[in-house]
Design brief:
two-stranded antiparallel sheet; mainly alpha; 19 helices
Amino acid sequence: MDVDTSQVSKFATSSSQTIWCASFSLDKLFACVTALFFVLLLTWCGNVLLASLERASLFTLYFHLTYHWHLWRSCLAVIFAGACFRGLLELAALGVIPGSIVALVLGLLCTGVYSYVTPAWADVQYMRTRWAAWSGMSRTAIAPPLVQHLPQTKEGWENMASEYPVKMNSVEKVPAWWIFRARGIRADPTRLLLAKARAGSIYPQERSPNAASWPSGSFPVNIYRPIVPLTAASLLWGEQISFSRRVSQAIISLPRAYLSSSPSLPRGVPAHGLVLAFGILARNKGLAPATLVCNLTSHPSALRAFEEYSVWYPRPAKTLRSYFRQEIESAFGILGPAYVSAATELALILVDVPPAIVLEWLGHNLEHQDLALNIRAEKLGATAEELARLYRGHYAAMLVSLNRYQGGQGLRPEMLVFDVMCRREGAEIPGWAMGEEMVERRRRELVWCGGQEIAENLVMAVV
């Protein structure tokens, strides 16, 4: 029986093509599955790394990583989507699967990638603001025995850091390999001063002349008030005097549930404003936080005026006041009702103000008392009690500043608050505060607040 060789040849060719296409399809499917496994594995590794950093209290590195987490997730999504997209197109070109199936799978792929990446990008502004709130400049009380060792310049701090290496707290540690590691002094200033004091007591003959006691009335760099013997000093430290940016050590008191990119209270109420407020309050208290003034909750009319004259009126976050106050009471109740009131209002404003505006406000260090104004007031003749009065109005000026801030340079209405504080405490406005320089400062504060009526109503409401 004769065999048609041409038919056999065609059958063999067709069979080999079918086998090759099936093999090719399996290869592409395997590549897609491998890419998916690779993405899931790296996602798991990233989550494990964050959990490990949290357990080890390496919060500066933890915040660094979460700050760039959206980039990490985007890279993983691109790897997975690229592998699947290329495989699907090649399979469609060979006719292995119909175009309608390819379109359906691509649609599902895009939806999955969008769902995976979008939450991370949606949290970018909050992560950046959280980093700024917890890692900005800090105000620290320097104990009387250490005051004599304060350097006169920022170069003095740099020299001290190189001369007296100290062991860092786990919160501050950042590995040398981390590419986003900030430059500057990594040690805490109090630890540096302790190291210098101990070295001076062990080797008194090696103490430098700069280690001698500061004369009364001196102003070391970034100190709020002139040196007074046997009295603590208030130091504002950070990048301005060569210290690297790091998360405040007070982060250890933050409930772990609040470290999430979407923090919430036990009842499901969003807690973003609380987390930002805790970071700010951890850094700007000063020497006597229990004396800071805030009377917003003393009269309902005061709270209403403070809200109505805000540039962010109608302030929808006010509905969260009872929830926030309960949390803040448990954290800061020991500092008194005025402090709790100020902290609660700060957290509420931080909810209402857009993250980009909050980030800009923090970038200008407006959460801190105006150091330059404090020093200038002392040089113009302000007494210790008058400087203390300026300090007591610190949080009132902060709240008014954030309540009216819409971007730009910004200003803290400290002299307007000081005037109301004088009337409130039955004191006359001193001569230095009535000079040409301070009158001009008041004029700028009034303009920045939006005019006499708005400024007076806001300041009177808080003070």
